[in-house]
Design a protein that fits this description.
Blueprint (H helix, E strand, L loop, with lengths): L1 H25 L26 E5 H6 L5 H7 L34 E5 L2 E2 L19 E7 L4 H4 L6 E7 L5 E11 L5 E11 L3 E12 L2 E2 L18 E2 L6 E4 L9 E4 L3 H4 L10 E2 L5 E3 L2 E13 L4 E19 L11 H4 L8 E2 L4 H8 L5 H10 L1 E3 L19 E20 L5 E21 L1 H8 L48 H7 E26 L4 E19 L37 E17 L4 E11 L6 E14 L2 E12 L3 H4 L3 E8 L4 E8 L7 E14 L2 E13 L2 E3 L2 H8 L16 H4 L2 E3 L8 E10 L3 E17 L2 E17 L2 E3 L2 E4 L2 E2 L3 E3 L4 E3 L2 E11 L2 E10 L2 E3 L15 E2 L2 E12 L3 E8 L26 E9 L1
Parallel strand pairs: 2-5, 28-33, 39-43
Antiparallel strand pairs: 1-4, 2-3, 4-5, 6-7, 6-47, 7-8, 8-15, 9-14, 10-13, 11-12, 11-18, 15-16, 16-19, 17-18, 19-20, 20-21, 21-22, 22-23, 23-24, 24-25, 25-26, 26-29, 27-28, 29-30, 30-34, 31-33, 32-33, 34-35, 35-38, 35-41, 36-37, 39-40, 41-42, 42-45, 43-44, 45-46, 46-47
Length: 960
């Protein structure tokens, strides 16, 4: 499929390349020296043009202590809500990946370029993984904080970040760095770069490796909090020890609650109807991550007017053992044929289960409970999970170990030059292909196998029908088989070692919920630029025009147990031929997935005109047409930008345009992905099945930027007002909005279960029993063109150099973003208003519009003298209000309603030593500020803060 799709575009462009290159070989003109700044295809566009472009050079990054890509991106004030710090909670199965989210509009609305050309999205997401960027090769980063669809097409709604490789490196450069982090083995990196510069070309080869070490939640006091302090801090009513149901009637209807007596001893807090379990102690704040990158490029003058460029990138990262809860609470249950009991929303434990016998013998149950359990067995309620406080013996008594691996290949090659006619027309033609792969594996319990093991018929070698005999194994779901709490060390006085679960039975009931995703992209670009013989007295009109062919494809291949076509039913693991109405798959927590293989092609044409009206007034006009075909259709987007140099020290700039983003293939296909989200009303995590929508239309936005620039000697400053007005932004429906509409009072109080007006919303939820918040099993949500968004704000940047201070120079700088509004229109689902118009400025909207601090700022003071450079940097993230303040989350406990401001101070010293060696030493977060408390799993907001505390960095660079 790939070859037939992209080779057609390649052959077409190859013809254009040959036609374009032919005349160039015969000419003897001066060498083309072209500079193209992000946001324009016109050669020679200055960095201080009408568009708000910030440039971060390699020297600037070095003065900041060579931050990781994640740290650098999060420090940009215009970025809000970037992932990469800790992805397990709220960012899905993407640990090790990073992104950039300009204006807090969503990472999918920031276009990431590498040397001005597109990259494929990270598999399983709809954004580019910035951790694949080869850091050793980067010379500068250009950040365009303005909509740019007229120039680059889809995805550039919130802006563009362009990573540009270094130039003119001659010789070998080797560098390494280590970060000393309390409670961790530390992070380190090694890089090598070799450059060659000749008369007619240059070569760059880089390789790098970065290691990030595990930091457990138990190593930071702020992370693990009591249930009273933070009920959302990794606490769940679905635990082990857990809650069970007993029956005293001949019909075996299980209704009477039984709390495992181990609750108070090794878990809790507990009540007569539940036992709280804090799973967070099994998780990490950061995971063991391995990142590797290789990059090479060559530039060569084929003739005096034609230059060849080629680059190749291989990059990847792996998290071999992401720690998580020992097991998940079940959302899926066996059929009555396996349980032999009436209920369909639990697992049956017969009275002869050795674990139950030991529980009864311990005396922890009341006489009535012991009698009914001994006669009729027990039934698991939804407030239970197979393994809890004792950890998972399959993984050394810790949490489960999930596997995440990402690998990418990218190649780009092209020619550019200049025709020596028509005023000298420049041209640039290139082909780019990228192949991005991920492998995800998450251990989960197989429903059918769990039920057989509870009945003593588990094990791969089980033969016959006698429980516990002929290779058949028992699974003990009670605390009687748990020695104690693996996190806090509490021992279980009722532990019976003879009933502890064997590794064999655990290996039998656990399997990997696994799949592979492949994301591909091919682009063919052709751009012409030059000057027109039109002059208003200030210079000729400059122009650019071109076309692009773009193909993108994504495919998912699931393991047999994950694949709904192979294993559709709860009992498929023990009955491969099973049929069922509810096709939830064989795992107890995750839902089955369908394989898919999706692609589409885009054809675009564009033009740009730069008009110097006078010596002080320049205008730029751009327009782009993109055609997706099918249901998506075509779109045309114009943009205009003006710059007026009112005085030598004062200039004004303005830009306005329309921009768009087309829906990705996975969002328009009839496929589903299961996400996990903490559901406050239900008291724990629930499964949300997110479906594609073939009726999705491209989202559109009108953008405006008005700015003023000052430059007086060694003082420079800029102030910009920006605004984005979205129409129909693509997003998934909010599962929490659906749940909160039906259960406005949480688990208790009045609800809308019997309200006929809410029947369409109720149809989105499957329950394990009657309609109640605790019985929520799964929720269906869809991708939609969601309510309109209007956001606006101010960007301010200033710098000043004081020369000859104590024999050196003092440099001062500030960069800040202030958000004026982030207004989302009223949300209606199935005819019900589920959310009023809301301004999210200064809020944290968990699993909704994310973290939206009103202020973000960075300021620095720097002293440079001879070979020495000392910098002090202050970073500020404003306080935020949790939007769940009026919900059941904060009904009885307002702790954490306001997330306080986060201020850190970094001190970096850099010195150029003899023998072409540079030493950098830094203290990051010098005053050891903890991230502010938030009512989230990790007790802080990982999208705006970091959990490391004060740490020390040392880096050395040697050039040969």
């Amino acid at each position: 499929m790939l070859q037939s799709r992209y080779l057609a575009g390649a052959s077409s462009l190859a013809l254009l390349l040959s036609l374009a290159a032919g005349p160039a070989f015969a000419q003897d003109a001066a060498e083309v020296e072209e500079v193209v700044v992000t946001g324009s295809f016109i050669a020679g566009t200055p960095e201080d043009a009408a568009l708000p472009v910030n440039v971060i050079g390699a020297e600037e990054m070095a003065k900041q202590g060579s931050p990781s890509t994640v740290d650098l991106i999060k420090s940009i004030p215009a970025v809000s809500g970037a992932v990469g710090e800790s992805n397990q909670f709220g960012a899905g199965q993407t640990t090790g990946s990073g992104n950039v989210n300009l204006r807090g509009l969503g990472a999918e609305r920031t276009l990431v370029l590498f040397n001005g050309r597109r990259m494929a999205i990270s598999p399983g997401t709809i954004y580019v993984d910035t951790n694949l960027i080869p850091t050793a090769a980067i010379g500068r980063i250009e950040v365009l904080k303005d909509g740019a669809a007229a120039t680059y097409g889809s995805d550039a709604i919130g802006g563009v970040v362009n990573f540009i490789t270094r130039r003119n490196l001659s010789g070998l450069e080797v560098s390494g760095g280590y970060s000393l982090i309390d409670g961790s083995k530390g992070d380190y990196n090694v890089n090598a770069a070799y450059g060659w510069v000749g008369d007619r070309g240059d070569l760059l080869v880089t390789a790098g490796y970065r290691k990030r070490s595990e930091l457990s939640t138990t190593d930071r006091d702020f992370a693990l909090r009591s249930f009273t302090d933070n009920p959302q801090g990794g606490w769940s009513t679905f635990g082990n020890p857990g809650l069970y149901l007993s029956s005293s009637n001949a019909g075996f209807t299980y209704t009477s609650p039984v709390v495992d007596p181990g609750c108070g001893a090794i878990s809790g807090p507990g009540t007569a109807a539940s036992c709280q379990f804090q799973f967070l102690g099994f998780d990490n704040l950061t995971e063991d991550e391995d990142h590797w990158q290789f990059y090479s490029e060559i530039n060569f003058d084929l003739t005096d007017t034609t230059r060849f460029h080629a680059e190749i990138l291989y990059s990847g990262h792996e998290v071999a053992a992401e720690n998580s809860s020992p097991s998940y609470p079940p959302n899926n249950f066996p059929t009555s044929a396996l349980t032999t009991k009436i209920q369909g929303n639990g697992f049956y434990i017969p009275s002869i289960n050795p674990g139950l016998q030991a529980l009864i013998a311990s005396g922890g149950l009341t006489p009535a409970q012991a009698a009914t359990a001994g006669a009729n067995g027990l039934f698991t309620s939804v407030a239970w999970r197979p393994l809890g406080v004792g950890g998972n013996p399959l993984f050394g008594g810790k949490g489960k170990e999930d596997k995440r691996a990402f690998e990418a290949y990218r190649i780009s090659a092209g020619l550019k030059g200049k025709f020596d006619f028509g005023g000298g027309i420049g041209w640039d033609a290139a082909l780019t292909y990228m192949d991005n792969n991920s492998e995800i594996a998450t251990p989960d319990v197989l429903v059918g196998r769990m039920q057989l093991a509870l009945r003593g018929l588990g094990g791969n070698g089980c033969t016959g029908a006698t429980p516990g005999a002929n290779g058949c194994l028992w699974f003990n779901p009670f605390s009687s088989g748990t020695a104690g709490n693996a996190i806090d060390g509490r021992t279980n006085p009722n532990y019976n070692a003879a009933t502890a679960n064997s590794l064999e039975v655990l290996d039998y009931i656990f399997d990997e919920y696994a799949y592979k995703i492949r994301s591909q992209m091919f682009t063919a670009d052709l751009v012409f630029n030059g000057d027109l013989p039109i002059d208003f007295g200030a210079g000729q009109l400059a122009w650019a025009a071109g076309a692009q062919y773009r193909w993108s494809g994504i495919e998912r291949q699931n393991s047999d147990y994950t694949n709904i076509a192979v294993s559709p039913c709860a009992d498929s693991s023990v009955n491969p031929g099973a049929t069922c109405t509810a096709r939830n798959g064989p795992f107890s927590f995750f839902g089955a997935l369908a394989d898919y293989d999706l692609d589409y092609s885009v054809i675009a044409t564009f033009a740009e005109l730069q008009m110097p009206f006078t010596d002080s007034l320049t205008g730029t006009f751009a327009i782009r047409y993109e055609d997706y075909g099918g249901n998506i259709g075509a779109t045309t987007n114009p943009k205009v930008a003006l710059k007026w140099q009112a005085a030598d020290w004062l200039a004004f700039r303005a830009s306005a345009g329309s921009t768009f983003r087309a829906p990705p293939q996975t969002q328009i296909a009839n496929t589903a992905t299961t996400n996990l989200a903490y559901t406050t009303a239900a008291g724990g995590y629930r499964a949300y099945d997110l479906y594609g929508n073939a009726s999705l239309k491209p989202e559109k936005a009108d953008t405006l930027n008005l700015g003023v620039l000052f430059e007086m000697g060694d003082f420079q400053a800029s102030l910009d007002y920006w605004r984005f007005a979205f129409k129909g932004p693509i997003d998934n429906e909010s599962g929490s909005d659906i749940v909160n509409a039906i259960f406005p009072n949480g688990a208790a109080g009045a609800n809308n279960c019997a309200n006929p007006a809410f029947a369409p919303l109720l149809a989105r939820i499957s329950f394990t029993g009657a309609c109640s918040a605790p019985n929520i099993n799964r929720v269906r949500i869809n991708y939609v063109n969601s309510p309109d968004i209007d956001t606006s704000g101010l960007d301010f940047a200033a710098s000043y150099r004081a020369r000859d201070v104590l024999g050196g120079d003092m440099n001062f700088g500030v960069d800040l973003t202030y958000v004026l509004e982030y207004v989302v229109s009223e949300t209606t689902l199935e005819g019900i208003v589920v959310a009023r118009e809301t301004d999210y400025t200064g809020t944290m909207d968990y699993l909704g519009y994310g973290s939206q601090p009103q202020w973000k700022a960075t300021a620095f003071a720097e002293y440079a003298r001879d070979a020495h450079n000392l910098r002090w940097t202050i970073r500020y993230v404003d306080d935020m209000l949790d939007t769940r303040g009026g919900s059941a989350t904060f009904a009885t406990n307002q702790n954490g309603r306001k997330i306080k401001a986060f201020v850190t101070n970094d001190i970096t010293y850099r010195v150029n030593l003899p023998w072409d060696t540079t030493l950098t030493a830094a203290v990051i977060n010098a005053f050891d500020a903890d991230p502010p408390f938030a009512r989230l799993d990790l007790s802080y907001d990982p999208f705006t803060a970091n959990p490391l505390g004060r740490y020390y960095k040392l880096g050395v660079t040697k050039r040969f």
